[in-house]
From TrEMBL, chain A:
Main location as per UniProt: membrane
Presence of the UniProt keyword Transmembrane in the record: yes
Subcellular location field: Cell membrane
Membrane topology according to the record: Multi-pass membrane protein
UniProt protein name: Dipeptide transport system permease DppB
PANTHER family attached to this UniProt entry: D,D-DIPEPTIDE TRANSPORT SYSTEM PERMEASE PROTEIN DDPB-RELATED, DIPEPTIDE TRANSPORT SYSTEM PERMEASE PROTEIN DPPB-RELATED
PROSITE patterns for the chain: ABC_TM1 (PS50928)
Pfam families: BPD_transp_1 (PF00528), BPD_transp_1_N (PF19300)
GO terms assigned for molecular function: dipeptide transmembrane transporter activity
Keyword vocabulary terms for this entry: Cell membrane, Membrane, Plasmid, Transmembrane, Transmembrane helix, Transport
GO cellular component: plasma membrane
Gene name for this UniProt entry: dppB
Family listed: Belongs to the binding-protein-dependent transport system permease family.
Organism whose genome encodes this protein: Sinorhizobium americanum
Bilayer-crossing regions: 12-34, 105-127, 139-163, 199-222, 261-287, 307-333
UniProtKB/TrEMBL annotation, chain B:
Compartments, record wording: Periplasm
Top-rank taxon: Bacteria
GO biological process, one term: peptide transport
Keyword Signal: yes
Family as reported in the entry's similarity comment: Belongs to the bacterial solute-binding protein 5 family.
Record flagged with keyword Membrane: no
GO CC terms of this entry: ATP-binding cassette (ABC) transporter complex; outer membrane-bounded periplasmic space
Species whose genome carries this gene: Sinorhizobium americanum
UniProt keyword list: Plasmid, Signal, Transport
Main location group: periplasm
Name of the protein this chain belongs to: D,D-dipeptide-binding periplasmic protein DdpA
Length: 342, 529
């Protein structure tokens, strides 16, 4: 692992920009060759060809594709993502609506999955082939193999319709709608900022089920990886030595294993978090969650490329940013680089 | 929240408190109506632009038109009375104000109709078809005085047909003073009106968050008196099973866009009412007459005999449709009885042999991947297979299938239609008029042109009916049109009359689905739990 110097940082930032540009180009080309017809979506099925052509020209779709791309890039440099066909708003303002909803959901989900998944993986490795290990394996298998759509519906049937423990689909009960001034766009945070605890609890009751379901999916992966990382460390000489010196399982884990698998764990968590932030389309649809996954899907359906591109950029950027942060975390947490820095 | 009145917050807080105090199942408040549906296709709430069903349902509560249709008849809305003469119609407006406080005047009516034709999108198609264009609308539609509007006949229509068009959502009257403030780049305020409202209807648009919800609020200045519902919330619930759970839990009051299986659970269930709202439209099998096989009327007749209409009605269509092979609902005045088309493999094979294809052939069938059309496609594939026509189904999303339809790029395709007025012409015109079938005409907005079906005789008859002022004579032409249509073995074959099934919580009173999605909500009330 390389040490984090200024030139290394600059190299990484450049890397980020180039990756984003490639991502943009590919998305743009794919979007333009798709058979979706944004003009038809706007003018309607019965429009005559003249009206159709007029709208095509207004959207700039009559220009050659490379010209469209250049115009798009020029807009980007001015911070203008263009207008979404789907909503008529500027794409930037749509993103400010959709992204916080996804961000809130993904963040809660990754917290739950890390808090439950990592200890479960550690326990499974420490007590290999015990009941805990088998239990962890079943949990992971189920999480991996059952479709999220089914999970979502069944979760709603049980916890919302039958038991009435959680709020239903949507981010909040309808009569609370619009009562909290959006600051961050995340209802849990905004309601607390406004001192509206009642709204906070309501929003929490709505988010907890989709977040738990997403967390379960992510947890399956996190538990499995934690278990195998830990097993690998447990067979190392230093652990055997520690054990021989009389360290109990708890001390072995906290003082010896955890610091050594921290770096790998961070990678796993960052990947899981990135996947969640892409917007879990199916979960968002089942739970009528107005996040970026649903926004992107609907935009793609009608060929609304401005919206799709902006969403791709944001998701791509977040993904790369997470990678970037994980890399920095390596440098700080990895005992070898830490030593080298000293 | 800045835009919220304190009263409303207090009211909402009171509702919340009452719920937490009693701890009952959270139900929707008594003065708010919550509708669950799919808002994925709602792209605009500008009445002179949007024609999508869900958008129309919302806009018909934000705006008034001069007249409306009620039980298939024309009834007053903004116009309290009108006189018809040979040359046109003179409307007398009732006293009304827009939500902005501006009075509704003749100028607003003139501006709105001009706006429709000058924006010139699909929404203008029905007016253009009867001779109203961007370049003559200023001459034909005039303000006589602030409360009187004169609309001259274009020469291509009768007064009756014009009135029905004026009852459509696209003829909504917008607040011209308000809209003109928001014009940019000569767009007639379109960019602004897409996401705002400027009408005189019972509600005003409060908020529209795409893929989430539309909130409309009572307009206290509404001429008919403030509606009972303070707010109507239209929620985006794309999953049918989820909508069903929310209905059962009283989190939504009305659900449309439910799947057949979910609808079934509400039939006969206490506390819910299932409405089959007629649309006057059809599920259609479009055949491309430009295809070498389908150009032959014998082949088209063979196909008409290869579909198990009754069976499909029972197993697939259920609440969505009723067998009908003439593009006029059976209960319309002058509708003819259904022709004797039914599943008859022997007869269909004989017809194919006569046409010179005893061994059958292969076709593609394109459809939108949506209930019930996707199941319909599978059923058609099965029964056509039995007579030797091998069908390959290609499914897609709305926009690519429609683009293929417009470009004549298909063999078979399953579109759906709706009636814009509740009479023979309103439901049938799009099946019987194709003024120029040449490819160069590129008349992609025309339903028959897309099937490349050349029908000069029917087209002439349709034009004649549109101009016949005498009701009895017009009725005779209506009958002749339908008979000719059946005789010619249509390339646009109606399969089922189309219904929009909706489920309404029994607490909700006077929610009556309108055949053209113009369901008004001002009279809706809710019983307390």
């Amino acid at each position: 692992m390389k040490e984090l110097t200024a030139s290394e940082l600059a190299r990484r930032v450049l890397h980020l920009v180039v990756s984003l540009f490639i991502l943009l180009t590919v998305t743009f080309v794919i979007g333009r060759v798709l058979p979706a017809d944004p003009v038809g979506a706007i003018v309607g099925e019965l429009a005559d060809p003249a009206a159709y052509e007029a709208m095509r020209a207004r959207l700039g779709l009559d220009l050659p594709i490379y010209r469209q791309f250049v115009i798009y890039l020029q807009g980007l440099f001015r911070g203008d993502f263009g207008q979404a066909i789907l909503t008529g708003n500027s794409v930037a303002s749509d993103m400010l609506q959709a992204f916080p909803a996804t961000f809130e959901l993904a963040t809660l989900a990754i917290i739950i999955s890390a808090v439950v998944g990592v200890p479960l993986g550690l326990a499974a490795a420490l007590f290999r082939d015990s009941f805990v290990d088998k239990f962890a394996r079943v949990v992971a298998l189920v999480g991996h193999s059952i479709p999220v759509f089914w999970f979502g519906i069944v979760g709603l049937v049980i916890f919302y319709a039958a038991l009435d423990w959680v709020g239903g689909p949507g981010r909040i009960d309808v009569f609370y709608e619009g009562m909290v001034e959006p600051v961050t766009g995340m209802l849990l945070v905004d309601s607390l900022l406004a001192g509206e605890t009642e709204i906070f609890w309501n929003a929490l009751s709505h988010i907890i089920l989709p977040a738990a379901i997403l967390a379960y999916m992510a947890m399956a992966y996190i538990t499995r990886m934690t278990r195998s990382f830990t097993l690998e460390q447990l067979s190392q000489d230093y652990v055997i030595a520690a054990r021989a010196k009389g360290a109990g399982p708890a001390r072995t884990v906290t003082h010896h294993v955890l610091p050594n698998i921290a770096v790998q764990l961070i990678t796993v968590l960052a990947i899981s978090y990135g996947n969640l932030l892409e917007g879990a389309v199916v979960t968002e649809i089942v739970f009528s969650w107005p996040g970026i996954g649903q926004y992107m899907t609907n935009a793609l359906m009608i060929g609304d490329m401005n919206a799709v591109l902006a969403a791709t950029i944001i998701v791509g950027f977040v993904f790369m940013l997470l990678n970037f942060i994980a890399d920095i975390a390596y440098a700080i947490l990895d005992p070898r680089t830490r030593e080298a820095a000293r | 929240m800045k835009h919220f009145s304190k009263g409303l917050i207090a009211g909402a807080a009171a509702i919340v408190l009452s719920f937490s105090a009693t701890g009952v199942n959270a139900a929707t408040p008594d003065d708010q109506l919550v509708i669950g549906t799919s808002l994925a296709q709602v792209l605009s709430l500008d009445p002179q632009q949007a024609t999508e069903a869900k958008a129309v349902e919302i806009m018909s509560n934000l705006y008034d038109r001069l007249v409306k249709t009620e039980n298939r008849k024309i009834a007053p809305q903004l116009a309290e009375s009108w006189e018809i003469d040979d040359k046109g119609i003179t409307f007398h407006l009732r006293e009304a104000t827009f939500a902005s406080g501006n009075p509704v005047t003749a100028d607003d009516v003139v501006y709105s109709l001009g706006r429709l034709l000058k924006l010139d999108q699909a929404s203008a198609a029905n007016f253009k078809r009867i001779g109203y264009k961007a370049d003559n609308v200023d001459r034909l539609v005039r303000a006589v005085d602030p409360r009187t509007v004169r609309i001259d006949l274009s020469g291509e229509t009768t007064a009756e047909l014009l009135l029905y068009r004026l009852a459509m959502c696209v003829a909504s009257v917008v607040d011209s003073v308000e809209v003109k403030k928001h014009v940019q780049d000569n767009d007639y305020g379109n960019a602004w009106l897409r996401t705002n409202s400027a009408g005189s209807g019972p509600f005003t648009l409060k908020r529209w968050t795409p893929n989430e919800m539309v909130i409309i609020e009572a307009n206290d200045a509404y001429a008919g008196g403030a509606p009972h519902m303070r707010r109507v919330i239209v929620r985006h619930v794309p999953e049918s099973q989820v909508a069903r759970l929310m209905l059962e839990r009283n989190d939504i009051d009305v659900a449309s866009a439910l799947s057949a299986a979910d609808l079934k659970t509400f039939e006969g269930q206490q506390g819910f009412e299932v409405q089959r709202v007629p649309t006057g439209g059809f599920y259609v099998l479009s055949m491309n007459a430009g295809n070498e096989y389908l150009a032959n009327p014998k082949v088209r007749e063979a196909i008409a005999y290869s579909i198990d209409y009754k069976g499909i009605e029972q197993t697939i269509m259920g609440p969505y449709g009723r067998v009908r092979n003439v593009p006029v609902p059976e209960d319309y005045e002058y509708a003819i009885p259904n022709p004797d088309w039914h599943f008859d493999a022997t007869k269909a094979k004989a017809l194919l042999a006569e046409a010179g294809y005893p061994n059958g052939f292969s076709l593609t069938l394109k459809t939108i991947a949506q209930t019930p059309r996707i199941d319909l496609a599978t059923a058609i594939q099965g029964s056509l297979g039995q007579v030797g026509i091998k069908v390959d189904i290609q499914q897609g999303n709305g926009s690519d299938i429609i683009a293929d339809h417009r470009a004549r790029n298909f063999d078979l395709l399953i579109p759906q239609t709706g009636a814009y007025m509740p009479n023979v012409l309103g439901s049938m015109e799009q099946f019987s008029s194709n003024p120029d079938n040449s490819k160069e005409a590129n008349n992609a907005g025309n339903f028959v042109w897309r099937s490349a079906w050349d029908i000069p005789e029917l087209t002439a008859l349709t034009a004649k009916a549109s101009l016949e002022p005498d009701a009895k004579k017009r009725g005779e032409i209506y009958v002749e049109m339908q008979e000719k249509f059946v005789e010619q073995k249509p390339a646009v074959l109606p399969l089922f009359e189309r219904f929009e099934p909706i489920v309404v919580n029994a607490r909700v009173k006077d929610y009556v689905g309108h055949p053209n999605q113009l369901t008004r909500l001002e009279g809706v009330t809710k019983a307390s739990d």
